[in-house]
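Section: Multi-chain targets

For targets with more than one molecule, the full set of components is provided together so that the structure can be written out for the assembly as a whole rather than chain by chain. Components appear in the order listed by the source. The example entry contains three components.
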Amino acid sequence: MQPETLILRGGRVVCPATDTDSIMDIVIHDGRIVALGDTQVEGRVVECTGFVVSPGFIDLGAELGDPGYLWREDLTTGSEAGAAGGFTTIVASPKTDPVVDTPVAVTELSVRAASVSGARILISGAVTKGLKGEQLSELGLMIEAGAVALSDGRKTMMHTGLLRRALDYARPFGAPVMMRPGDTDLEGSGVMHEGEVSLQIGLRGIPSAAEEIGVARLISLASLTGCSVHLSQVTTAGAVRQIRAAKAAGVPVTGAVPARHLVLTDRAVDDSVYDTATRLLPPLRSESDRLACVEGVKDGTLDCITADHVPLTRIEKELEYMHAKPGAMGLETALGATLKGLGGDLSATIQAMAVGPATVLGREAVIEVGAVADLAVFAPIAESEVGAPFRSKGLNEPLSGRRLPGCIQLTVRDGCIIYGPKHD
Amino acid sequence: MNRKDLLGLRDVSREEIIEILDTAERFRSVSERRIKKVPTLRGRTVVTVFMENSTRTRLSFDLAAKRLSADTLGFSASSSATKKGETLMDTARNIDAMKPDAIIIRHSAAGSPHMLAKAFPWSVLNAGDGINEHPSQALLDMLTMRDHLGDLAGKTVAIVGDVYHSRVARSNIYGLTTMGANVVVAGPGTMCPPSMAGLGVEVRHTIDEVVADADVIMMLRIQRERLQPGMMSTVNEYSRFYGLDLERLRRARPDVLVMHPGPINRGVEMTPEVADSEQSVILEQVTNGVAVRMALLYLLLGGDQTGGEEDAA
Amino acid sequence: MVRTTGMNGVEVDRTLDRLAHEMIEQLGVPTDYSLVGIVTGGWPIAERLADRIEKSTGIRPKTGTVDITLYRDDLYTGLEKPVLGETRLPFELTGQDIVLVDDVLFTGRTVRAALDVIMDYGRPRSVKLAVLVDRGHRELPIAADFTGRFLQTMKADKVEVQLGRASSGEDRVTLIPIDGGQK
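Its structure, encoded as tokens over all components, is:
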């Protein structure tokens, strides 16, 4: 934390929580915003003219590799990658080795996470021991030790009876429960979306029905137990429709769509000629699914964008398509993909990348006097080509070579610059 | 044809297919004369990489290369490198270090030949990748059809069986539709779903619906060892609705061609009497296989991109 | 150097007549030998020679064709992939006397390749060579037994042989010199 005062001058401040969209200066001192608007304060000035200033982005579940997968990512590189993408807070997925499923593991990881110099890293705990979907972890103790959320690590927890009991049990502790809606049996040996493209290029498919069934299951259980369920990756039109109806009926569900799913479709697997960077779970879907997700973000059905950050290296990806591990890195391109997918809609973008996730965590993402100074400054329209060097260790970026807007100029966390031209 | 690899028939033009079939006809005569060898690919190295078991296709390709005087090497799934867990890319790098001219690859993962073709300068011939394509099989099927039917445009080809999961079917569908033929597919709902229409074919259900109008009936092998539970019930039920027997053959055109990529499950997709009937051209398919594969190796390798002096008489 | 300009239809006609008579004189009864034309230029010459031999003797020698594309030694240096022609030898080669026939004899490489094709089909008793035009510049020790006309050429010149259908009036041999001018 720097003792000096930081002034972001002349940026277009867009803050959905306060319905703000105007040019103003932001004065930051001691980790918080102390003044907005024209000021005569002295301090270190960063020119933000021509750029947008928004609350820093929040990701609810990135795979950061620590412990156990340090060749794919570590807390430092993950935190830096987040900062480079405008993220000021990242919730680490418990899908590590060993899995984060005890209060001791939460504590240890928190200690390591506290010293990162990029985005703030928060810890989530696994709902079941080892993420095996068989026995509950010590949910209460993990939350007490500092876990901000509980997660199924994408494994979908197929035992519906146990899932119900897990939601009943977790509800009173108040932390959000984040699950990937799916049906592993129906997903079978599918490696991409089941549709016209999978038929044409001879790959086994995962039907949309798998996600729709998963969503239906979670919505029903959320309604039954009253436990808030966050659907961590939503990609199909059918799922969006169900969530819309569920919310209208007052069911406590929220949903997130991976940023790249707003831009890419299953055709990318064909166009890239089986490039394993396009091997994802959930897979890239059809164009009509993509459009439904875009609609869902714009009308608030989908509360959040997630970078869905799963960094992988040559070991996992330089294989045949069906053997490659699914996943793609995303922290550094999430803003660009979202802006592109939403047609440049700034307010919807910032709402989904900052406010929505903050709300799920029971926090705030707001630019107002007294608030924590977590900010992202970016160029909303100018496009640049996605490519190396990346801060993440991952080598799997399916958006490589594309031109995206949203180049981050500056990221500030707790009042300190964690990414920017003047960053060390 | 001016390409480095043959990965499938999806993007092969009508002119290219005609060129391949015409060239294959020329190569048929090599297999019929005393010295069944021409020196065209002398000194070239062709490596077959068969990560899935297959005797006939591997032998057919090996023979094709040898009859063109190329040197051949074989890697198989049981080779110790694979057993030790070497990845396909690492195996390919090792092969690359030996400076081959072409790799013929069969693999259970769709997209494997494409992965190698992108990364290496040698020619890649797809001998079957997962459920995606098996172009040389479709080409020899089309050559056999052409021998008997002439121009394939407007002819009706029925493909019966596990069409959705068959690379032979997919390649045939791509090739035949390119040549203007009408393709109609039939099979159990789990193996021949309505979505197949997306490939430009007509979708039917039982074999009875397709026998009468077909110029060619192509029966696919039921790969029982690969079926997930629930894909079909019993062999008895399968042959009752989707198998080809003499009674059904009698309802077909008298000059219909009966084809099968082999090996046949006698009594499942067709009865022994049908396999041995006059309309069956299954053995011709095998003969044409070597010729087609020689043609492919010739067209991919038998020429140099550097361009030198013009030929002198 | 005076370079001959070529042959017109009448000259081609007379040359073929003479060649046919030489062959009848030297080779004996036409049942003893076969004419094998090298694809593409040699085959029509072989047919014309066979016609004339039949006209003179009443017996037509057997004819066939060899395509040398798969046996060429320059297959890897050509710019385009040459189209495969047909090798048709509808008679037993072993023990036979063969006369290879081509339109132009130049470096000799085509004839070498044709010999390889023949040998892969059988073991003839003898192989002779008949050509309409010998334009010199041999790169291999190959010589014709029956030659129609010798043409003085530069190596980079082109020699084109055009043979019409039935009427010999359309036949011609054209020398296209590299320097464009004719003298």
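The mean pLDDT of chain C is 85.
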